């Protein structure tokens, strides 16, 4: 295992943070990139990275890593110390309210300058594109600590074949976001993880990490057509490892085992490929999900568990008004998986409370 340190832009005199990346194996045909807790308060992902470090070190000593694996266990050192009145706030930079997982540098803007350089050699094109990505990212000079964090993460991941961004939700079962063209390669991961929800889309919420990387490869393939073939580039996914309080050794070991099984299936780790478990629910289209809001303020009482399949008309939650004898039951408008809900038990009027998956993707 090699440890690499990347200093971030110093935000104030006397202050300097760094990003730590661990690499296992040697550069070879395949590169895998994994990062945990870009939203710094999403700790289930961080504990999985601890388990993965142990597994990868054992596998490396046994000579069973057949490519290079880069692991960033703490992808957001900036907001690790953002606490307000006892609450850990890790998703947004408090000074600017920017979400750490939005508006990554738009790699898609580089397509027009790279496309003329390509030939009819697909493997050569792949190498050329990856070099161009690294060089263009190096040319950017980040002005802020926030920007330097995003650019460092992007540079570490941009030339990987498989990119997994490990997060968690509020209260949830395991679920995965990826783009439509990447689903074929991510589906085995969903099976090994026992993911109950797989959300496919080409645009999620404005420049997330996986969307930025997966979207670039979609765009360059679309522009180049058949005249300039390109070997498979990166497949990227965001993996939500349950809810923010689901921090346990049992879950973390299970998730790390599933990721190792997936990398074995992909040929990055040498070993017997485990049989693929069934996919628990089909992939669905992200933009057909249904969101459910509180019709008025009150106490939230959940009536459905996360990760369960609900039918149209099934009760999801009650909102109980403690001053006016009024209880409103919110029911599902569709058949789908109740895949996430807020970690609150009192709602303001109109607040989003939970989501149910929509139409199957195929
Ligand atoms: Zn997150």
From TrEMBL:
InterPro entries: AstE_AspA_cat (IPR055438), N-alpha-Ac-DABA_deacetylase (IPR053138). Its EC number is 3.5.1.-. SUPFAM superfamilies: Zn-dependent exopeptidases (SSF53187). Residues 30-184 form the Succinylglutamate desuccinylase/Aspartoacylase catalytic domain. Gene3D superfamilies: Zn peptidases. One of its GO terms (molecular function) is hydrolase activity. It is an enzyme of class 3 (hydrolase). Its cofactor is Zn(2+). Keywords: Hydrolase, Metal-binding, Zinc. The keyword Membrane does not apply. PANTHER family: BLL3975 PROTEIN. This is Succinylglutamate desuccinylase/aspartoacylase family protein. It comes from Paraburkholderia phenoliruptrix.
């Amino acid at each position: 295992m090699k440890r690499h340190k990347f200093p971030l832009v110093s935000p104030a005199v006397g202050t300097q943070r760094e990003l730590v990346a661990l690499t296992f194996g040697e550069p070879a045909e395949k590169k895998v990139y994994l990062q945990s807790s870009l939203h710094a308060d999403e700790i289930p992902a961080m504990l999985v990275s601890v388990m993965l470090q142990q597994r990868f070190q054992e596998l490396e000593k046994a000579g069973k890593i057949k490519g290079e694996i880069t692991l960033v266990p703490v992808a957001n050192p900036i907001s690790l110390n953002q606490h307000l009145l006892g609450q850990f706030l890790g998703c947004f930079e408090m000074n600017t309210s920017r979400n750490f997982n939005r508006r990554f540098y738009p790699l898609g803007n580089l397509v027009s300058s790279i496309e003329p350089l390509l030939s009819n050699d697909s493997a050569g094109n792949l190498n050329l594109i990856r070099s161009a990505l690294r060089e263009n990212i190096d040319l950017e000079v980040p002005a802020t600590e926030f920007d330097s964090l995003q650019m460092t993460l992007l540079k570490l991941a941009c030339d990987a074949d498989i990119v997994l961004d490990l997060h968690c939700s509020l209260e949830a079962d395991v679920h995965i976001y990826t783009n439509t063209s990447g689903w074929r390669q991510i589906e085995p991961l969903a099976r090994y993880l026992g993911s109950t929800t797989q959300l496919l889309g080409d645009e999620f919420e404005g420049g997330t990490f996986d969307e930025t990387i997966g979207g670039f490869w979609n765009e360059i393939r679309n522009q180049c057509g058949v005249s300039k073939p390109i070997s498979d580039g990166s497949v990227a996914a965001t993996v939500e490892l349950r809810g923010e309080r689901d921090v346990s050794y049992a879950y973390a070991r299970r998730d790390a085992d599933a990721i190792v099984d997936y990398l074995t299936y992909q040929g990055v780790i040498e070993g017997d490929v485990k049989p693929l478990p069934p996919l628990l629910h089909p992939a669905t289209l992200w933009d057909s999900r249904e969101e459910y809001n509180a019709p008025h303020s009150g106490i939230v009482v959940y009536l459905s568990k996360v990760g369960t399949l609900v039918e149209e008309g099934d009760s999801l939650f009650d909102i109980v008004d403690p001053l006016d004898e009024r209880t409103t039951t919110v029911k599902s408008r569709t058949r789908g998986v109740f895949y996430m809900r807020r970690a609150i038990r009192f709602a303001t009027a109109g607040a989003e409370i939970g989501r149910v998956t929509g139409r199957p993707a195929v």
